[in-house]
Amino acid sequence: MATACFHLRLCPRFRAFASFSSRPLLATHPRTLPLRRTGPATPLAARTRRGFGSSMAAAPPNEDDDFATAADLRFDQPLKVVQYPDPVLRARNKRINTFDDNLRSLADEMFDVMYKTDGIGLSAPQVGVNVQLMVFNPAGVKGEGEEIVLVNPVVYKFSKRLSVYEEGCLSFPGIYANVLRPDTVEIDAQDASGAKIKVKLSELSARVFQHEFDHLQGILFFDRMTMDVVESIHEQLKNLEDKYEEITGQASPETISNYRGTKDVASFSR
Ligand SMILES: [Zn+2]
């Protein structure tokens, strides 16, 4: 984490993560990576030439300025990854304005559980903490790549160019399916110490960021899938709902059988 923060502070403005561009997108854990690419890769230069679409206004993550309290940021060790359809994944995530040791240790613990579960990205709501915090490292291996901690992230520009990648999610174990997303995003955020970051993300880092950013808005990856794709994982989603009902003794808060297609969350105009 220290490395990531150092790099971002060193050159925070529109910095592409150099370690990503020199690294194959799927260098490690091809079988278990939560995010897997499918189809032929578009050369980076081609993507760059296409550039960005016109600037789009970014909505704030929340309507109000209700910041997370110490109680909101409390967490139990070891962290446990929450699985669909736990309602914590749909709850509102508060912005953070306390940048202390507790926040840094939460980020550290999130990296630990992410590596242990062969993930490359994790959002705070996935460990039951409803705040605007994500961690990721596209290398997926401790000590390799670059560890990124982003607090209160906002997207202010999406590329017009979109790609389909096969994604997975630690909250949906064993489920992988295609999701269409912009290739690059330009974002504002803060690091774990509260320093402001302005950065352009591309390749796998853009993909992971957008997946985790959705979690911070209560959006899950199947919300962005086409109906055909959702249908292909319907049974697996239903199994997770059944498992939730068995474990909790409560009715599943949402059911894929009632799913009627992509909602307005599919818009990338934020
Ligand atoms: Zn996820």
From TrEMBL:
Reaction(s) the record says it catalyses: N-terminal N-formyl-L-methionyl-[peptide] + H2O = N-terminal L-methionyl-[peptide] + formate
SUPFAM superfamilies cross-referenced by the UniProt entry: Peptide deformylase
Pfam family, one: Pep_deformylase
EC number: 3.5.1.88
Database matches in InterPro entries: Peptide_deformylase, Peptide_deformylase_sf
Any single Gene Ontology cellular-component annotation: chloroplast
Biological role: Removes the formyl group from the N-terminal Met of newly synthesized proteins.
Protein name: Peptide deformylase
Lineage: Eukaryota, Viridiplantae, Streptophyta, Embryophyta, Tracheophyta
